[in-house]
Amino acid sequence: FGVSAYPTLLFIDGDGNLVHKIVGSAPANEFMVEARKALNPETTVFGLGKKFNAGDHSDATCIAYMKALEAAYESDKMGEVAKVYFDKLPEASLIESKNWDMAKRYLMDPSSKAFAYLFNHSKELSAAYGTGEVEMYYNQVFGTTIYALKRAYSKKESVDGLKDKVAAIERLLPNESFKASSRLLLNLHLTQFAGTKQWDNYCALIDKVI
């Protein structure tokens, strides 16, 4: 079942099909609310996945699916759905508190045009929500992607699936107004050189920084 964290709760129907999944513990009342979703194909993570994959990208389906994927600890798929959902919103609306709160929770893809808009409007976001909160979000998005690249290299997995995200980081981070830019780019390049065993370039970059 691909369990990678504990506790993982799997809901399986009478035919042996996995229909719903919850990762993590919760108080009894919260657990029961989430568990009851397994009884309705419209609310299970796999039922919502079928609707989404069949082309239902409505706001209601996307939001319900993102919440279900979050509960199922399926962060990669959640990111794909979030990119579809946020990229179709009017850009100016992304700064509204409702969408900003959701973006911080679900939108972790630097290749998303919605994320690019948020990153390039840091002044407006900082004025509305505070510099610390905004920079923490940016650091989380970039840092999570670089970590995913590092993990792909260490597990000898294909990095092609991260190509667009890495290209987006290279495009967005040469931004002097974001104080963590140079540190994150350094981390990215060292990860790439180590992952491809370009040790001369790895050492040269460290020498340059020192």
Task: Offer a concise description of the structure.
The chain has helices spanning 28-36, 45-53, 59-71, 75-87, 97-106, 113-119, 122-129, 131-154, 163-172, 181-195, 199-209; strands at residues 8-12, 18-23. The chain is mainly alpha-helical and 210 residues long. A hairpin with a 5-residue loop joins β1 (8-12) and β2 (18-23).
Based on the model shown, name its key terms.
two-stranded antiparallel sheet, 210 residues, 61% helix, single chain, mainly alpha, globular
SSE topology:
Elements: E1 8-12, E2 18-23, H1 28-36, H2 45-53, H3 59-71, H4 75-87, H5 97-106, H6 113-119, H7 122-129, H8 131-154, H9 163-172, H10 181-195, H11 199-209
Antiparallel strand pairs: 1-2
Helix pairs in contact: 2-3, 3-4, 7-8, 8-10, 10-11
Please, could you describe this protein's structure?
The protein is mostly helical and about 210 residues long. Helices cover about 60% and strands about 5% of the residues. It has helices spanning about 30-35, 45-55, 60-70, 75-85, 95-105, 115-120, 120-130, 130-155, 165-170, 180-195, 200-210, and strands at about 10, 20-25. Strands 1-2 form a two-stranded antiparallel sheet. A hairpin with a 5-residue loop joins strand 1 and strand 2. The chain is globular, with a radius of gyration of 19 Å. The protein starts with 7 loop residues before the first strand and ends with a helix.
